[in-house]
Structure formats: structure tokens, C-alpha cells
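Risk register update: the risk of archive-format incompatibility is retired. Evidence:
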Amino acid sequence: MVARFNEALAKVLALPDVRERLGRLGFAPRAMPPEQWRDYLQAQITMFTRLAREAGLEPS
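Archived output:
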């Protein structure tokens, strides 16, 4: 299921009109394997958690 979804997403992100529209919204679309996406997402969570703590932000 994950592999099929990832394959379909990669096809959609390769469409010129989708890339253009996402680009206008400030996104740089790229498909990546599920394992790479997991690692990227975990790194982002770690970074933003640290930044929020350093800024003294608390969940509401």
C-alpha cells in the first residue's frame, strides 16, 4: 500500500502543472522513498521541537 501510494504521488508531483502551482505557493515538490521521507520528517520534528523549547513555547 505504501509503495503504491508513493508511486502515485511521484507521478502526480512530476506533472508540470502540479509543479508550477506548488512552486507558486512556495513549495519545492519532490518525491522520495518512504524511508527517506520518514527520516526527513523525524529530523524536522526534532528541529522544530528544539526551536520551540528554546523559544519557551508551550502547547496550548
